[in-house]
Amino acid sequence: MKIAILGAGESGVGAALLAKAKGLEVFVSDKGEIKEQYKAKLATAAIPFEEGTHTLEKILDANEIIKSPGIPDKAAVIQEASKKEIPVISEIEFAGRYTDAKFICITGTNGKTTTTLLTYHLLKNAGINVGLAGNIGESLAEKVIDNKHDYYVLELSSFQLDNMYQFKAHIGVLTNITPDHLDRYEYSMEKYAASKLRIAQNMAGADFFLYNADDENIVSAFDSASFGGTTVPFSLKGAENAKVYFEGDKIKVTAKFYEGTVNTSKSSLIGKHNQYNTMAAVAVAKLMGVADQEIEKQLETFQNAEHRLQPVGVAKEVTYINDSKATNVEAVWYALEGIKQPIIWIAGGVDKGNDYSTLVELAREKVKVLVCLGKDNEKLKETFGRVVPIIAETTSIDYAVRLSRSLATPGDVVLLSPACASFDLFDNYEHRGQRFKEAVEKIVLKK
């Protein structure tokens, strides 16, 4: 059995190591430059690889190709594989063949990382033998080599789901579907939604699909009549079919035999979007048999991933929040909606075809200053010019923070929530968030 692996990042190298461990003949090809840490892993395992090119003769000699999520189906090498009818799968599909562990899989345009981390936190601290992998930044395939866990919590992107066929989740979670990455889906929301709904494929009656019943895109795309598993809809808006919902600060779960009432008043997560994320994670914990009191205790101790509505400092009674991960309009809507204080909003970057109209009323109500941080800010200025009293622009995050400090009054929040990609000024959203934190630290030290 010959395996060709395209892409030598976390998922590709993990798949290569698993394939080698299972006695398969492996070749790794990356059209870009391979990071030294991954080269070292491949060399140690004596796995042949190339970088800077794709040698088609070697790749198309394989019985199966494992494709890294970032490579689109329209890439020339994938098109050539298709002509030769060579199966192309994802690392997750491949890894799933080599373990009897059950999978708890989480996807969604927004909220999937928070939901994944919270779910893992609740289960692990309840004593369940659970691993964490997927889009969160760790290779499932590499973890499966040792196969130490009974369950895995996986964050899955639509790109990972696209090349999964036989794989099945025991519990699947879909947080929401909003326009994103449409260039990979022929600018079709229907095709993007279909990709996300692969999270529920192959399920049987003992498997559970948790989904946001308030999300119109999910409701219209999900064919519940032909679904083979058990549905667990969650809702904040009183959906009639909801089995998970809020009553005050308490989450009620009425999913089959898994009933519970969980108080969330001590949770560190803020905003309506995090109520959805928390409902999903709590429902998974209940389906896994975790006691209500244990869930409540762990909600209080949870710390979210960086760059997601992360408080990074307070100076002169002004709070600075890093939400650099908010790279689309929907994520920013949740940030603006969740913060109750007056906001100085830092936004901008590489626009992805954004429609800012849904933010106008929230901006009118809450935003006192908009600082545009990007090389091209015309769309932001045009949309919010008559809505926000003060608009400034800069390409310096240090200046953006200093300006925000000078315009803030006690009780305000300075919020970095860009609604855009970061690549005009930064390497990625993490780099942008880290630079924001560093700029805030300078202010906090001077307070």
UniProtKB/TrEMBL annotation:
Domain (Mur ligase central) ranges: 106-285
EC number: 6.3.2.9
Domain Mur ligase C-terminal stretches: 307-420
GO terms of molecular function: ATP binding; tetrahydrofolylpolyglutamate synthase activity; UDP-N-acetylmuramoylalanine-D-glutamate ligase activity
Keyword Lipid biosynthesis attributed: no
An annotated GO cellular component: cytoplasm
Positions annotated to bind ATP: G108, T109, N110, G111, K112, T113, T114
Localization per record: Cytoplasm
PROSITE patterns, A to Z: FOLYLPOLYGLU_SYNT_1
Family matches, as NCBIfam families: murD
Protein name: UDP-N-acetylmuramoylalanine--D-glutamate ligase
Organism this protein belongs to: Pontibacter korlensis
